[in-house]
Amino acid sequence: MKKKLILLAFALLLISESYAQEEIAQWRGPERNGNYPEKNLLSSWPAGGPPLLWKYDSLGSGYSSAAVTASHVYTVGMNDSTSYLFCFDLKGKLLWKSRLGHDWTVNWPGTRSSPLIYIDLGYVLNGEGMLYCFDLEKGKIAWQKDIRSEYGARSLEFGYCDNLVADGDKLFCSPAGLETTVVALNRKTGDLIWKSESLHDTNVYCSPILIERGGKKFYINQTRKSLYSVDAENGRIAWTAGLTGNFHPSTPLFFNGCLFAIDGGKSGSFMLKISEDGYSCSEIWRNTRLNVVQGHVVMLGDCIFGVCDRKIVCIDWKNGNEIFNDSVKSNIQTFIAAGNCIYSYSDKGRIDLIEPASSRLLYRGSFQLTGGRKEHCSHPVIRDGKLYIRHDNSLFVYNVSQGSPQ
Predict the structure, then answer these.
(1) In this structure, is the dihedral angle defined by the CA atoms of residues 355, 330, 264 and 62, taken in order, positive or negative?
(2) What is the DSSP letter of 9?
(3) pTM of model > 0.90
(4) Where is mean pLDDT largest: 80-94, 155-169, 196-210, 284-298?
(5) What is the 3-state secondary structure (H, E, C) of 34-67?
(6) Are residues 86 and 95 in contact, defined by beta-carbon separation less than 8 angstroms?
(7) Element (H, E) at 232
(8) What confidence tier does 397 reach under pLDDT thresholds 50, 70, 90?
(9) How far is 345 from 348, CA to CA, in rounded Å?
(10) Are 312 and 332 in contact (CB under 8 A)?
(11) Residue spans of alpha helices (H) in 121-249
């Protein structure tokens, strides 16, 4: 009997851990790099694009992407200067709508950031710097914090765009104020765990990543003048690397001990080697051509793909050399990837399925997203064979699976 109880407890523990892993949904996928670990996806699309499963047309303004868990879909929309959380089931039924509060109305109105779903709670930062923690059953606000006023942050021209990241009991955000650059909060209460020293610089429009070196985790993000790393355990700034561009909207990529980042302007992009202990870095190469203004890059194999000067550019991860380029009709394209394909979403609303070959790109299907008058710039999401695209007032969900989506 005792042995049976032990086995039952072990099984329940495995189920609990599996459920917890399923309930982490964050911006640009599990690794925050735009790559989605999906299988059995369509290798080409029919004329007109993949089948539309469902859509919802009453979100209001905003640029928040969908956060998709194993059972729910969350996003944010604004009506009459007030933002609301929306929660759907996987078939598109609206389960609840919960009021957040006053949001950004100065330019490109609405929340820029996407909800972070972390195990048992959700988090979102609006354009004014108001941070909300909400429960997942009804969207009730558990706690909220104005990071701009509390930590002496400076106002941003286009509002806060920080897509939040959490680890264990910590929720990280980067007010980048006169008092501190990064803070770690108790994710259940909002209480301050630590705050870093200030780099005396303003925030920009880049979202952070967490990397691991030497058994430690480090928070990586950018200010206007610096790419920086902070020890996630204690808030100590590990290193900084100078930047010369202005807005830095593209999140860095980390792979095999190396960090890829985009500076902007004439400086383009560069690669850093992060030391084994995580407390120093050295530049490996720089590519002055690849300067992605908006939309981010993705990595497939040993190649980095991004758009600059109206061209999709492919460069080598190892040395930064350009492998090939392909002309496009749009200045801005947001890239995500799944399998061996790129999913490109242009600022004109065109969605392309692109398969990279050794020296060119193979287009495997496209369609035009209709409706809405705002800019097309929310980042698409793929989960369980479904492609989620937020545009303006609507959320579109397409079947991109070879069979029936889960």
Answers:
(1) negative
(2) H
(3) yes
(4) 80-94
(5) CEECCCCECCCCCCCCCCEEEEECCCCECCCCCE
(6) no
(7) none
(8) very high
(9) 8
(10) no
(11) 147-150
Question: Cα dist. 25→98, 119, 201, 234 in Å?
Answer: 19, 9, 30, 25
Q: Are 300 and 337 in contact (CB under 8 A)?
A: yes
Q: Residue 1 corresponds to which amino acid?
A: M
Other CB atoms within a 10 A radius of the CB of residue 395 amount to 25
Tell me phi and psi for residue 91, to 5 degrees.
-100, 0
Give the confidence band of 247 by pLDDT, cuts at 50, 70, 90.
Answer: low
pLDDT in tens, 17-68: 433 445 899 999 999 999 999 999 999 999 999 999 999 999 999 999 999 9
Q: Are strands 116-118 and 24-25 parallel, antiparallel or unpaired?
A: antiparallel
Q: What angle do CA 398, 400, 405 make, to 5 degrees?
A: 85
| Token pair listed for 110 | 């609405």
The DSSP-derived string for 243-284 is --SS---SPPEEETTEEEEE--GGG-EEEEEEPTTSS-EEEE
- Sorted by where each begins, the domain ranges of the chain are 22-29+36-399
Tokens of 167: 């680890």
Give the tokens for residue 112: 């820029």
10 Cβ neighbours under 8 A, 6+ residues apart: none
- Architecture in CATH for domain 22-29+36-399: 7 Propeller (2.130)
Q: Given the structure tokens 């793909």, which residue do they identify?
A: 305
8 A C-beta contact, residue 273 and residue 280:
no
**371 closest CA partner among 398, 389, 353, 385:** 389
The identity of residue 399, as a single letter, is N
Please report, as a single letter, which amino acid is at residue 69. T
pLDDT of residue 388: 98
Contact 105, 81 (CB under 8 A): yes
Would you state the pLDDT for residue 246? 67
